[in-house]
Amino acid sequence: MSLDLATTRRIAKLARIGLEEHALEATRQKLNGILGWIDQLAEVDVTGVPPMVGTETETLRQREDKVTDGNCRDALMACAPETSGPFYTVPKVVE
Amino acid sequence: MSYTIEGRTGTWEIVVGLEVHAQIISHSKLFSGASTTFGGAPNTQVSLVDAAFPGMLPVINHECVAQAVRTGVGLNAQINLFSRFDRKNYFYADLPQGYQISQFEHPIVGKGVVSIELQNGDVREIGITRLHIEQDAGKLLHDQDPTKSFVDLNRSGVALMEIVSEPDIREPEEAGAYLRKLRQILRYLGTCDGNMEEGSMRADVNVSVRKAGEPFRTRCEIKNVNSIRFVMQAIEVEAARQVEIWENGGEVDQETRLFDPGRGETRTMRSKEDAHDYRYFPDPDLLPLVLEQAWVDELAANLPELPDAKRARFQAEYGIAFYDAGVLVAEQAVAEYYEAVARGRDGKLAATWVMGDLFAALNRTSNSIETSPVSAAALGKMLDLIADKTINGKIAKEVFEDMVETGESPDAIVEKKGLRQVTDTGAIDAAITAVLEKHPDKLAEYRSGKDKLFGFFVGQVMKETKGKANPAMVNEALKAKLDA
Predict the structure, then answer these.
(1) ipTM for the complex?
(2) Residue B190 region, left (φ>0) first, then alpha (ψ -120 to 50), else beta?
(3) What Pfam families does the record point to (chain A) (predicted)?
């Protein structure tokens, strides 16, 4: 698998990473290097082996339906780059 | 008669599928211990997990899983004992994680079916494709500042069920009936309050058009429609828009659109341009969700009686009509009220009173069934008074109005106002004699063959007894006297 420049630009956009035009080619090559390395996995014959997403054999741990958290607005807001009163604020996004 | 659009090039039919987002009723969120209560002060019901602080790990709420299973059973659907969570990646200000935890490849509930009833009485089945569990996003407020959007994360991480229908819907009315039925089932189950105004149930509407016999054409998705009426309107205007495009030789683009009820039109939603590239992958923070069949069976066994079953039972047990049974089971509280009145009594009479005088009184006094000024027990008691002939049907109306006004028991009202039905033959005879003496002319007319006047005499005798006479006894005694 090999990425072209357009795909590299699109991935950057989806990830919200600002990539200068001159850095595109270098990024493309780096990503292709990673992909090439991962492609080595394709050498293994997995015919008939069901896809696996992890090595855990445990199943999901579950929690009781109780309110145990929240009411920590000041702590949350302390880390926010921008706030107004009780809200976070972001540049206006309107449909 | 199905819904079609007459175009210049022929007749078009519409194809609609709905994705309903239903907020799961639970105390705490899907993956955190923060509260789900509606209307809390901004950003107070937010944990570090919901705000996506680094290193925070999600732990699933057991009750949310149970609610999804209950809903699946209520939708006659297959429950998948193995399901898994995936990350749906997109960038938006209301989504602190940068991805929504959802279920993509392995949803918790598979295929099911819902039967709906149309205005003309037709019953149709709408297929359910799947139901999966996912997180809700936060809320954006755009009207607080000229250049900023405000973010409230109270809703962030609240559990949703996304219920996807098959593209089985062919009319706006069917979409409305499907949503109402779904909401009714969810409310009966207690898994979602179905409140569209508060946003706890919202619909994405997939619409395409085609000519009869064609395969599906390209569809558009109208996002976040928040009332049943708007869903029906959105389908109409979107279908008309698509017909217009096809007939002008154009091509409908598969895209996400918004419905603007003010303008009565749909328009492209710009922010979703990249939306189809969600780059789903299994969430490495969450192990597969594995359920035991015994637990599923236990949940299924403890479900409340659902609307369709209750309706059939009401018909069979209380001898009421299909339509009436439908009205009485529409809301669980009404069904409970009705049943408390009808049990051990005349079911048809109970239905007449509940759907007639009671509904009218609730309407007039702006009450709901929960705040009814007349309790089911009191109305039942009143029906008993009719049954044992203490009062007649006409006096019962008067007693009922008094009950609405004063909240007193029917016995107390009957005693206080002396409304007890007159069944004493002597008193009835006396009233008849008095009436006949007052109207010798009418009596002569009657006896000379004008038997229509019988009704007049009944009315006069009832008036003479202040409406309290037993009508059957009056009829009998009057007949004897007149024809003597």
Answers:
(1) 0.84
(2) left
(3) GatC
